[in-house]
Amino acid sequence: MSEKCSAANKGVFSAAVRANKQLGQRFYQLGLEFSGAGAEVFANFKPGQFVELDVSGTALPPAEAIPEDLVDVSGRKVLLRRPFSFCDVTAKKNKTFAEILYCVVGPATLRMTTLTAGDSVSIIGPLGNGFWVPESKKRALLVVGGMGAGPLEHLAKVFTADYPDMEVIAFAGAKTVEELPFEARLDEISQQLGFSLGEFAKYGIESLVATDDGSAGFAGLVTDCLSEWLGKSDLAGENMIIYGCGPEQMLAQVAEIAKDKKIDCQVSMERRMACGIRVCQSCAVECRVAGSNETVYKLCCEDGPVFESREVVF
Amino acid sequence: MNKDVDISVNFSGIGLANPVLTASGTSGYADELADFMDVNSLGGFITKSITLKPRKGNATPRIVETDSGMLNAIGWANIGLDAFVEEKLPVLEKLSCAVFVNIAGETIDEYVAVAQRLAAEKAIAGFELNVSCPNVEKGGISFGTDPAQVTEITSAVKKVSGEKILMVKLAPAVTDISVIARAAVEAGANALSLINTFTAMVVDVETRRPVLANKTGGLSGPAIKPIAVYLVNKVYNEVAKGSGIPVLGLGGIRTASDAIEFIIAGASAVAVGTANFIEPGCAIKIIEGIKKYCACKEIANIKELVGSLEVS
Predict the structure, then answer these.
(1) CB contact under 8 A, B32 and A77
(2) Is the pLDDT confidence value at A150 over 80?
């Protein structure tokens, strides 16, 4: 993790579904189990890396279970795999368990909801570069926007296990409390300001919640919550690092804050991609070239998805 | 059942171990696929489009999924001729399968310059002339829809291609594809590949904007396969068969039976494109499937299958 880590031994693997739990109206967590070669390869899966999941052959839920806004797209045949990161990875003897946090947004994720224990799914991975931890950092700030929670939950786990001296604080934002992709504890969320989310609390990590409409925690953008918090911080910027995952607009603001406060910052970018293995060339991310005004397109799949925020042209 | 099936192909003088290639723009420069398949097991490999100068490509979104298909508008993002020669040719030199370089450009001079530079490279079996890309402002499809321009560009590139075979990749959305195919063959093309993608658009009804930054993109995948099979059959009957020019068939191939459809329709070889994004090793399964089919049908040589469509 101290070095920038790249995917090695990527390939096509099959995983068994262990569970598929509904966390909120649109949020689910899919539990997978890898055996054999897959167990070995995915045991080294780093937070921020991703996989490409094939659900083209998975059945749709019954008509009454399809949300109204997805009725039109639900009948569309799924062709391409879909990229997902893991929110948790546990390697045990001969088995590796991984969890995918997902939100139902279209024909593929709608199909995913019908996966049940014992089903088998095809997965390409591990793909891309995960987050890395530069030396001499004392405090890590995890900034989550909505569905960006997954890889940062995984990162939180790795911090707890491998970096016991690192102080870690999570900031989680969404438009409304319903759009926070965590196990429903709405009463608690709405009542407390300095609320601690179970997903991070289990690693001993404090978390702050922000909602645009004020339905839970800080009323406003998660980036404003972060700025306010940093305003009270006494630690020099160079001793901190920010990790961001969420909508691009949020990442752009996180990058601005990091630049202003002279804090190193890594962001996990998202792009439409067909393959995840550099051949389709669709997931271009515009990046600055050091010492020049030129920009280049890097590929989210293999050059990222985690980039240093100062590199990305938002 | 005949176990000794010969599925090797004489493709305009180039020996292919089998009739399955990977299509340009869906398999990178070959090293990308090494984790998923032994590229040497392919009949051949076609590089992504190489242009004289490096190209950044189009803004994003560059792709969108459609019903049984996808649109792409990459815009010839590639490292350019010099970097290709320096960084990628050494990788391709190690391949034992036939390597074709897809050449693209905004002007005829650019196509000529790339072909000229690569004509003496031993690693390369031939060129695929991209005169049918729908995703660039200049060049591409603007050449491939006009028979006079196809004649001009094909003969210009042929002059500098030396021993390399020259394959011309055809655009599907033309009034009569055989007119274009004939223009290419009469100007010196040694082979034809078809089809490239269809220019298409997806509209976001919330924003009333096209989903792709380029507004339009090329439709590929299973959705276009029946049209591709039809056009391969048409070009085979009307141009290729009579002139002894092989056809490389492509468009939505995912399985061995898809590939066999194209071969029966008249393709001497086929290329797998969009399916590489979903199952990067599927070309190998397709090769196995073709062998099995021939064995079951007691076809001793794949040649017997090419253009064997029964219409009576």
Answers:
(1) no
(2) yes
pLDDT in tens, A198-230: 888 889 888 888 999 988 888 999 999 999 999
Contact assignment for B72 to A274 by CB distance below 8 Å: yes
Q: Which fold has domain A141-253?
A: Rossmann fold (3.40.50)
Q: Say how many domains are in chain B.
A: 1
CB contact under 8 A, B63 and A273: yes
β-partners of residue B106 are none
Return the closest-CA partner of residue A38 out of A6, A5, A55, A16: A16
Beta carbons of A20 and A151 less than 8 angstroms apart: no
Nearest Cβ partner of B277 from A280, A284, A296? A280
Judged against a pLDDT cut of 80, whether residue A196 lies above it is answered with no
Residue A64: CB atoms within 10 A of its CB come to 5
Which CATH number is A11-127 given? 2.40.30.10
Cite the active site residues of B.
133
Judged against a pLDDT cut of 50, whether residue A5 lies above it is answered with: no
In this structure, is residue B245 part of a structural domain?
yes
User: Whole domain around residue B91: which residue ranges?
Assistant: 9-57+76-201+219-304
Tokens representing residue B120 in the block:
């003496």
Range name among A98-112, A177-191, B14-28, B140-154 with the lowest pLDDT average: A177-191
**B61: preceding bond cis by omega (within 30 degrees):** yes
Question: What interface predicted TM-score (ipTM) does this complex get?
Answer: 0.93
A282: nearest CB among B35, B56, B74: B74
